[in-house]
């Protein structure tokens, strides 16, 4: 059986924002790689394309909420 655009096995999906850098910021509770919440990540596959698009549109505004960590080398030498 060949998939066609009308086939129930294919559906239009937008690309996931996942960048394979999965770590949840302890204060903001969003992924430091893609900026989605745990709930958004877990429910991504069941969301409608419209809901995913709305979330994708919000992601750039979430990036500034993450503060750079000041540990390691940058914390010791005061660069960043």
Task: Describe the protein.
The protein has 80 residues and is mainly alpha-helical. The chain is 32% helix and 0% strand. It has a domain at 17-65. The chain has three helices and no strands. It starts with 37 loop residues before the first helix and ends with a helix.
What are the defining features of this structure?
mainly alpha; elongated; 0% strand; 80 residues
Structure at a glance:
With 80 residues, this protein is mostly helical.
* DSSP strand tally: 0
Shape: elongated
Task: Name the poorly predicted regions.
Answer: none
Largest pleated sheet: none
* Class by SSE composition: mainly alpha
Task: Give the topology, please.
Elements: H1 38-43, H2 49-62, H3 72-77
